[in-house]
């Protein structure tokens, strides 16, 4: 299978490397800075599931002929990413986005036609270090995807086969991918709101007085939001995440907290703003969501004005 990976960041680098190990033909569509790093060092991944350090095919302009495009940019880069992959997308190409949030699916469908676009999500903790190393931080290594229609098509089966052949990945092709994306938003919405508000990881919040109750209350509110929008979480989800959000020994931090702490850009509108709006439409108490969104927007102003601590 020929797969073009847009971006060789944390997710693109991790899953792209694994697909190569699984035997897929992979190239990375990258910009100048990342192209220079890849040329100098190859793609380097550090992971509890085995390292990867090899030269990889890197393109700075897309060409046609791909079975799939794995879209792994941040949501604030979506417009530029759409322009970049446009030459790569033809009638045989499936676009598999792994961005957090939900708004990008409609945006991609408008740009390429709904038939070209799959739903997708990743549950992993990874980061791109300044030297270009992709660091995989825990044992989460899940990618989930499917047709928005729920049909199990040959292209979804082919992607599942490519990921199944890859080490260090647990892939699931599902008939309810939009519900899974909402479920992911319940998870991320809980951890991102809490970690952004508290500027701390899940274990640190859980050890603070009232911290567990705060995360459990956020989880309940996010489940209510998803249910209101037609996507209640599956059986077993609540118990699993109640455990995660009461673990006082947890080291779990969100990618948004890592980006904030590194002084980077964050997906404030696409994740926190989207969830706040969804909470309001659902009539769910939204004071915590609003505080996280305000905090993120205030951070962005300080960042843009160069007033972040060095
Ligand atoms: N990191 C994590 O643990 C998780 C992240 N996610 C989600 O996955 C998505 C990707 O996150 P993540 O991998 O962390 O992000 P990164 O910032 O690590 O990687 C994104 C990469 O996309 C590249 N990119 C953006 N636009 C273009 C373009 N037009 N052409 C070529 N390359 C481009 C960037 O390149 P450049 O260097 O040139 O800017 C960057 O290297 C986000 O929506 C995030 O919320 C989901 C689950 C977990
Ligand atoms: C998987 C999860 C929820 C991990 O926090 C994530 O998507 C992120 O950090 O961006």
TrEMBL record:
The keyword DNA repair does not apply. It comes from the Bacteria. It catalyses: (R)-pantoate + NADP(+) = 2-dehydropantoate + NADPH + H(+). Pathway: Cofactor biosynthesis; (R)-pantothenate biosynthesis; (R)-pantoate from 3-methyl-2-oxobutanoate: step 2/2. Residues 3-149 form the Ketopantoate reductase N-terminal domain. Its EC number is 1.1.1.169. Transmembrane segments: none annotated. It is an enzyme of class 1 (oxidoreductase). SUPFAM superfamilies: 6-phosphogluconate dehydrogenase C-terminal domain-like, NAD(P)-binding Rossmann-fold domains. Residues 176-299 form the Ketopantoate reductase C-terminal domain. It holds the Pfam family ApbA. InterPro entries: 6-PGluconate_DH-like_C_sf, 6PGD_dom2, ApbA, KPA_reductase, KPR-Related, KPR_N, NAD(P)-bd_dom_sf. The keyword Cell inner membrane does not apply. PANTHER family: 2-DEHYDROPANTOATE 2-REDUCTASE, PROBABLE 2-DEHYDROPANTOATE 2-REDUCTASE. This is 2-dehydropantoate 2-reductase. It comes from Plastoroseomonas hellenica.
């Amino acid at each position: 299978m020929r797969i073009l990976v847009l971006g060789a960041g944390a997710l693109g680098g991790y899953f792209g490397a694994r697909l190569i190990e699984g035997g897929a033909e992979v190239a990375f569509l990258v910009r100048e800075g990342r192209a220079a790093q890849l040329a100098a060092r190859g793609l380097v991944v550090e992971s509890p599931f085995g390292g990867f350090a090899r030269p990889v095919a890197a393109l700075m302009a897309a060409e046609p002929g791909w079975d799939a495009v794995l879209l792994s940019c941040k949501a604030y880069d979506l417009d530029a990413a759409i322009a970049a992959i446009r030459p790569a997308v033809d009638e045989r190409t499936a676009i598999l986005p792994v961005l957090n949030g939900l708004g990008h699916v409609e945006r991609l469908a408008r740009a390429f036609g709904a038939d070209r676009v799959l739903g997708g999500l990743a549950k992993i903790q990874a980061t791109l270090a300044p030297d270009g190393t992709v660091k995989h931080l825990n044992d989460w290594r899940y990618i989930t995807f499917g047709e928005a229609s729920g049909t199990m098509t040959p292209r979804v089966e082919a992607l599942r086969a490519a990921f199944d052949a890859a080490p260090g990945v647990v892939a699931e092709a599902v008939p309810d991918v939009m519900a899974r994306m909402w479920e992911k938003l319940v998870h991320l919405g809980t951890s991102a709101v809490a970690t952004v508000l508290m500027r701390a990881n899940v274990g640190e919040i859980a050890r603070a007085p009232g911290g567990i109750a705060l995360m459990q209350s956020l989880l309940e509110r996010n489940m209510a939001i998803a249910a209101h929008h037609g996507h209640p979480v599956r059986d077993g989800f609540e118990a699993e995440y109640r455990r995660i959000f009461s673990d006082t020994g947890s080291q779990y931090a969100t990618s948004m907290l890592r980006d904030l702490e590194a002084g980077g850009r964050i997906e404030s509108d696409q994740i926190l703003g989207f969830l706040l709006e969804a909470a309001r439409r659902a009539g769910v108490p939204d004071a915590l969501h609003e505080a996280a969104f305000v905090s993120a927007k205030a951070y962005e102003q300080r960042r843009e004005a160069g007033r972040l601590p060095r």
